[in-house]
């Protein structure tokens, strides 16, 4: 059996609590507690939970943006937080993350073409002409007209900006794309378009997706397997749609109930 | 209770933005009316037009708004100010930006109460009572707190309490829960529904999310390109949507619990309100469009088979 693309074991992350910013530490908050999670290539894992359950902290650890307080993350068998700087750079190319708010994630002073090409420039891939060519190709791949490369973000709608964010995340040919509430700020009609786009990209590129949201209804539309988070832990993980039929943990039952009610 | 007749609101620009383009709508007392449509369809401008709370660049071109036997479009600013909050109150999507971060919750609530003191009959409500009505626990302690000490759901409850201070007859809630968790959304919608029943208020719930209002709305009005394209009893509209746009909106909902299956997206995008297509504004995205749809605009008419459900669609007029 091939090892999973990403494997996290015993991940925890705690933050100090202080009575005021410069004061002594009066306690600790455990944002993520002993999380185990594995993802294979081409698989979509959904992660659902309410605000403050630790899902965004977990996403940032898995993306290599913040270190865990304890536990390990292995990417294709290599321990992520023990890598040397060169290894770290290689890792950054293979895991990318997109966020909720497409209005604050794009630099308003850069054209969307510049935003999409920036990761290529940072990793010194191709010359200027090749990067421009690749950018137009990426915009086409996410369903935007390639000739929009010279436009600024303020001329784009929320859904179009999220497409730019996805194009930028794909620029380095990642193996895993982490979507942290990537469709939550969008209209339902635009959500449907972005979900379809993400699923297409997963199929065509063999991407693994970690899809994080507070909305179980949306997660159920795209995930193969769904983990429910509460108070920093993954309290339940079941294939989709089995979770909807027999949720066991109270937090999972509540989310299923709400999702079915709304439908 | 509130009747809108052929309302047109235009934002001055080149070309002008026709944000509300001939809307007629009746909002009954004691009921919840949901106004549903995609971003940029004119929902918020319609709500703001009721009391002319819109930006200075906007103006009402024609139409009438009847509220408490008065015609609001003809009222001078000074009289309209008494309607705002006292007759028609609003809550918006982002309560963080609506609350003042350096004033206590109690101070801001008292401000809202004082504003309406002279107009409203009877003794004014106490701030703590208002917080209790919106189900905030330990209200006396909360009055002394500031907005950053509250959760997103609590902030929105405070906004509802402030809106209640004026004892409005119509509460307009514009995407009140879009920034919140699903469970907080459900609690807030239940709260709004209960307050509406207790007070006999009318509730106008504006949202892009049909799921949220499905069980709670009495009536649904679907808006597209500044117009109402379908209107009727909520159960009926959801079970048997007639307009191709309403049908497409319902197909956008993720199918819950039926396994991995991405919902069907509506092809194309919402039209720019400065360049609304001729004929039926939905025709470029409509799977049923035919020649007439490109040239003539359909009117909102009762369905022959179901007179309480109104639809503006040529395809529904020729095949009853």
Topology (SSEs and partners):
The complex is a heterodimer of chains A (263) and B (320).
Chain A: E1 6-18, E2 25-39, E3 44-48, H1 55-62, E4 70-75, E5 78-79, H2 85-94, E6 95-98, H3 112-122, H4 128-141, H5 158-170, E7 176-180, H6 188-205, E8 208-213, H7 216-222, E9 225-230, E10 233-239, H8 242-245, H9 250-262
Parallel strand pairs in A: 3-8, 3-9, 6-7, 7-8
Antiparallel strand pairs in A: 1-2, 1-4, 4-5, 9-10
Helix pairs in contact in A: 3-4, 3-5, 4-5
Chain B: E1 2-11, E2 17-27, E3 32-36, H1 43-49, E4 58-67, E5 70-71, H2 77-83, E6 88-91, H3 95-98, H4 105-115, H5 127-133, H6 139-143, H7 152-165, E7 170-174, H8 182-199, E8 202-207, H9 210-214, E9 219-224, E10 227-233, H10 234-239, H11 244-251, H12 291-295, E11 301-303, E12 306-311, H13 314-318
Parallel strand pairs in B: 3-8, 3-9, 6-7, 7-8
Antiparallel strand pairs in B: 1-2, 1-4, 4-5, 9-10, 10-12, 11-12
Helix pairs in contact in B: 4-7, 5-7, 7-8
Describe the structure.
- The complex is a heterodimer of chains A (263) and B (320).
- With 263 residues, chain A is of the alpha/beta class.
- In chain A, 37% of the residues lie in helices and 26% in strands.
- In chain A, the strands form two sheets. Chain A has a six-stranded mixed beta sheet with strand order 6-7-8-3-9-10, sandwiched between helices.
- In chain A, helix 3 packs across helix 4 (128-141) and helix 3 (112-122) packs parallel to helix 5.
- The model of chain A has no long low-confidence stretch (mean pLDDT 92).
- Chain B is an alpha/beta fold.
- Chain B has one domain: Rossmann fold (3-Layer(aba) Sandwich), CATH 3.40.50.
- Helices cover 32% and strands 23% of the residues of chain B.
- Chain B contains 13 helices and twelve strands.
- In chain B, a hairpin with a 2-residue loop joins strand 9 (219-224) and strand 10 (227-233).
- In chain B, helix 7 (152-165) runs parallel beside helix 8.
- The longest helix of chain B is centred in the middle third of the chain and has 18 residues, at 182-199.
- The radius of gyration of chain B is 20 Å and the shape is globular.
- Chain A binds chain B through residues 44, 50-51, 157-159, 187-193, 195-196, 199, 214-218, 220-224, 240-241, 244-245, 254-256, 258-263, and chain B through 38-40, 151-152, 181-184, 186, 208-212, 214-215, 248-249, 251-266, 269.
């Amino acid at each position: 059996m091939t090892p999973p693309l990403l494997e996290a074991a015993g991940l925890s992350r705690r933050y100090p609590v202080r009575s005021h910013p410069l004061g002594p530490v009066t306690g600790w908050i455990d944002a993520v507690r002993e999380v185990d999670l594995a993802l294979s290539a081409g698989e979509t894992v959904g992660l659902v939970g309410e605000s403050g359950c630790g899902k965004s902290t977990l996403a940032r650890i898995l993306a290599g943006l913040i270190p865990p307080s304890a536990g390990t993350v292995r990417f294709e068998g290599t321990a992520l937080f023990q890598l040397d700087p060169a290894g770290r750079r290689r890792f950054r190319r293979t895991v990318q993350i997109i966020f909720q708010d497409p209005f604050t994630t794009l630099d308003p002073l850069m054209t969307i073409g510049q935003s999409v090409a920036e990761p290529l420039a940072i990793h010194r891939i191709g010359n200027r002409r090749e990067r421009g060519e690749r950018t137009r190709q990426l915009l086409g791949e996410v369903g935007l007209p390639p000739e929009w490369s010279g436009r600024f973000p303020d001329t784009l709608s929320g859904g179009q900006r999220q497409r730019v964010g996805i194009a930028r995340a794909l620029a380095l040919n990642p193996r895993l794309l982490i979507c942290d509430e990537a469709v939550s700020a969008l209209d339902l009609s635009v959500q449907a378009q972005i979900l379809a786009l993400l699923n297409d990209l997963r199929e065509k590129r063999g991407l693994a997706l970690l899809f994080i949201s507070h909305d179980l209804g949306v997660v159920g539309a795209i995930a193969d397997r769904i983990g429910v988070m509460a108070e920093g832990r993954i309290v339940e993980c079941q294939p989709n749609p089995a979770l909807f039929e027999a949720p066991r943990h109270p937090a999972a039952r509540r989310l299923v109930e709400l999702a079915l009610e709304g439908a | 209770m509130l009747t809108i007749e052929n309302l047109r609101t235009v934002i001055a620009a080149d070309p002008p933005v026709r944000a509300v383009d001939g809307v007629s709508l009746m909002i009954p007392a004691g009921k919840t009316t949901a106004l549903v449509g995609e971003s940029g369809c004119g929902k918020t401008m319609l709500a703001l037009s009721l009391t002319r709370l819109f930006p200075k660049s906007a103006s009402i071109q024609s139409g009438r708004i009847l509220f408490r036997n008065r015609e609001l479009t003809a009222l001078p600013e000074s009289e309209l100010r008494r309607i705002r909050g006292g007759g028609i109150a609003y809550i918006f999507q982002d309560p963080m930006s609506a609350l003042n971060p350096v004033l206590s919750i109690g101070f801001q609530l008292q401000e809202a109460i004082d504003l309406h003191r002279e107009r409203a009959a009877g003794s004014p409500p106490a701030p703590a009572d208002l917080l209790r009505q919106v189900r905030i626990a330990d209200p006396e302690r909360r009055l002394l707190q500031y907005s950053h000490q509250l959760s997103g759901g609590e902030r929105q409850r405070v906004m509802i309490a402030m809106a209640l201070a004026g004892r409005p007859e119509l509460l307009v809630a514009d995407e009140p829960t879009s920034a919140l968790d699903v469970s907080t959304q459900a609690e807030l919608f239940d709260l709004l529904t209960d307050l509406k029943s207790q007070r006999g208020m009318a509730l106008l719930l504006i949202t892009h999310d049909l799921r949220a209002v499905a069980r709670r709305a009495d009536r649904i009005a679907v808006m597209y390109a500044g117009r109402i394209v379908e209107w009727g009893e909520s159960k009926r509209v959801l079970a048997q949507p007639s307009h191709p746009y309403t049908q497409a909106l319902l197909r956008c909902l993720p199918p819950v619990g039926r396994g991995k299956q991405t919902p069907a997206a509506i092809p194309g995008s919402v039209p720019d309100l400065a360049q609304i297509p001729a004929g039926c504004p939905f025709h470029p995205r409509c799977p049923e469009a035919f020649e007439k749809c490109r040239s003539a605009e359909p009117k909102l008419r009762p369905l022959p088979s179901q007179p309480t459900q109104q639809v503006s669609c040529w395809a529904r007029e020729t095949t009853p």
